[in-house]
Amino acid sequence: MKKKQQQQHPGSGADPWPHGAPLGGAPPGLGSWKRRVSLLPLLRFSLRDYGFCMATLLVFCLGSLFYQLGGGPPRFLLDLRQYLGNSTYLDDHGPPPSKTLPFPSQVVYNRVGKCGSRTVVLLLRILSEKHGFNLVTSDIHNKTRLTKNEQMELIKNISTAEQPYLFTRHVHFLNFSRFGGDQPVYINIIRDPVNRFLSNYFFRRFGDWRGEQNHMIRTPSMSQEERYLDINECILANYPECSNPRLFYIIPYFCGQHPRCREPGEWALERAKLNVNENFLLVGILEELEDVLLLLERFLPHYFKGVLSIYKDPEPRRQVLPPKGTE
Ligand SMILES: *[C@@H]1O[C@H](CO)[C@@H](O)[C@H](O)[C@H]1NC(C)=O
Ligand SMILES: *[C@@H]1O[C@H](CO)[C@@H](O)[C@H](O)[C@H]1NC(C)=O
Ligand SMILES: *[C@@H]1O[C@H](CO)[C@@H](O)[C@H](O)[C@H]1NC(C)=O
Ligand SMILES: *[C@@H]1O[C@H](CO)[C@@H](O)[C@H](O)[C@H]1NC(C)=O
Where does the UniProt annotation locate this protein (predicted)? Predict the structure, then answer.
């Protein structure tokens, strides 16, 4: 008898009544309690106990049968459930193992050029090893706008990356939901437009700390005269490069891939602001980088925990980070 009941329990007990819900006043839990009491002192094992056990079992089996034949639990269980709320087995015991991670696991940093992004990417390389997330970088640095097909392909590529991932590239905002993807969490860092203009002016001419040859790649055909042109003269004499400082440059990173996003104007600005509100977890400013890193550490600890101490630590900083203010 003991054996029989043990066989019954997992089958009929676990499925229809995961909570061990009572049926017809004969809860399975009570049955096994009763059995233990009567079996332990073997001498007191009586016919009455045996009958009680079998009756419990019978009611239990019949209930299970009706449940399955009738296509659902009896009415009073449904009433009970309505009273208790609509939680299900899955609600109480957690979903089956799924790929959804309990924190934002899809992060995109569509970094704006000359806004400190190289420093952040260096930090990300250290962090990705430390925290074991998937840092996906791109080799394409000069293509921020994409055709519809390119957007689709890139979004597909990003979405299939192993999570948690952080994708980063110089690219205008991509609308994942437009192509049926999950919208990732966006982060970005911008900078005072005048500082950005200054940084870009010198970067085009002399590169940055990365290498002395860098400027040869950026502006190989620039004449020596132009390369060593004083920025004050460039501005005062209204050279084309300085009369159009491209202050609008930052907006399309937040507005998106729509052609109107690249026309300086109200429409693009409003859309960029809307997007920042709806899709960006954080848009930091380079002038307050330490605060930005602290916020990232709080908002996305699985990616950025400890970033501030890495940034401030003089040792690795000397090895991997540029001196302050180079980007
Ligand atoms: C449970 O769901 C039913 C039908 O969907 C609904 O009528 C009922 O109000 C819900 N009960 C609770 C407590 O949410
Ligand atoms: C981007 O750079 C690559 C080489 O680095 C060059 O072949 C390509 O034409 C550039 N594309 C644009 C849009 O400037
Ligand atoms: C997508 O990934 C494939 C393979 O990793 C690569 O060859 C292709 O260039 C990627 N496409 C884009 C748009 O990044
Ligand atoms: C993204 O695409 C969805 C679906 O097409 C659209 O409803 C939404 O307005 C778009 N958002 C942006 C910022 O373009």
Answer: Golgi apparatus membrane
Task: Tell me the residue range of the domain where 274 lies.
Answer: 106-319
The pTM of this model reads 0.63
pLDDT at 9 over 50: no
Domain harbouring 300, CATH code: 3.40.50.300
Q: Which of 170, 172, 215, 258 is catalytic?
A: 170
| Residues 67 and 186 occupy one common structural domain | no
Token pair 């017809």: residue:
24
pLDDT at 24: 46
The pLDDT of residue 6 is 47
The closest residue, in CA terms, to atom 8 on ligand 1 is 82
Our count of domains for the chain comes to: 2
Within a domain: 45: no
Please tell me the distance from the alpha carbon of residue 201 to that of residue 195, in angstroms, as a whole number. Answer: 10
**Ligand with smallest separation from the Cα of 143:** 2
For residue 280, which ligand has an atom nearest its CA?
4
Answer yes or no: is 10 within a domain: no
Torsion of CA 79, 85, 88, 92, to 10 degrees: -140
- Does the beta carbon of 82 sit less than 6 angstroms from any atom of ligand 2? no
Quick one: which of 226, 189, 186 has its CA closest to 114?
189
